[in-house]
Amino acid sequence: MTLHTDMTADPHIRIDALTFDYGGARPAVDRLSFDIRKGEFIGVLGPSGCGKSTTLRMFAGLLAPTAGSITIGGRDISHAPPWERNLGLVFQSYALFPHMTVAENVAFGLKLRKIGKEETRARVAEALRAVRLDAFAARRPAELSGGQQQRVAIARAIVIEPEILLLDEPLSNLDARLRDEMRFELRDIQTRTGITTLFVTHDQQEALTMCDRIVVMNGGMLEQIGTPAEIYDRPASPFVANFIGRANTLKARVAGGRVTVDGQPVPASEATGANGEALAVVRPHCVRLLADGPLKARVLRRVFVGSMIETELELEGGQRLIADIRPGDPDDALAHVGNIVALDWRGADLRVFGA
Ligand SMILES: Nc1ncnc2c1ncn2[C@@H]1O[C@H](COP(=O)(O)OP(=O)(O)O)[C@@H](O)[C@H]1O
Ligand SMILES: [Mg+2]
Questions:
Q1: Which domain covers residue 346, as residue numbers?
Q2: What's the whole-model pTM score?
Q3: Which residue has a Cα nearest atom 11 of ligand 1?
Q4: Residue nearest to atom 6 of ligand 1 (CA)
Q5: pLDDT band at 91, cuts 50/70/90?
């Protein structure tokens, strides 16, 4: 037997300069390009209105791209009708047929595809097992919880054995507890079935906890693509740093490889790009308090949030930032409201962006 599978050499899906223009001030999706590998769980993350659903609708064939292309397994499907694409779709509203049983709902797509009775029965049973609803086949949607209904919607999407699963904010209608449970369930279902999945969400926590890689969108454009750790640890822009996790963004200057804030040199191991105005980004948990040092700040406020004390600080020039301090740490003793302290962090924890 010859093994000639190289997932990196040949992406399963290639999105190339994908653009959609509703005729507004600027395109809703603007020259989006990225690759997806077979079996990957890709998150499409960004604030409301950034073009996530429009991107998914182009995948599904519900919108034709204004420009650019989507290629699946080497075949350009950008203008293929929806029924020629082997896709499973799940939206925020489960849109189950209320008068049909769970099994009938799941069987619906197979009926449309004229699959025989016996095969339908077997595949519906398998899909219901995958979402752990085999005991609920005879119920109607109204007799299920929101999470169970959403699992029926997922079973209905995967029963057709799609090449790609498209999920548009599938957990948004669930209450907080159920949403947390369903995150793991959904990821588990995807891992077991191995279906390449595009998961749209505006929730950074969902994206960070569930996805192999995340595509961060802003204003129709790609801001960054990477693993959750890459996106969190090495955000490509102040937008990404602030959208994923919490971040302090400070006005800074770069000159001769040194970074200064309010005229004071600050720890920085990379002074990227050109000299001049810059934005320096540091996460709250990276900020340390010292009794003395060059970068002075006044403690404005302490907010106890359980595992942390969120400490708000003001630099001499008026810029504010947050330090997350662990109760009982040496920093904690310094963090009295009104105290003047010095701020410190590891050079590697500061990201510097040209303004
Ligand atoms: N049918 C439409 N007609 C005109 N503009 C639209 C339509 N649908 C979405 N838009 C606009 O396109 C942009 C992207 O929308 P959408 O893809 O739904 O974003 P998201 O899913 O990220 O919230 C928004 O500015 C939105 O107002
Ligand atoms: Mg949307």
A1: 246-354
A2: 0.87
A3: 28
A4: 22
A5: confident
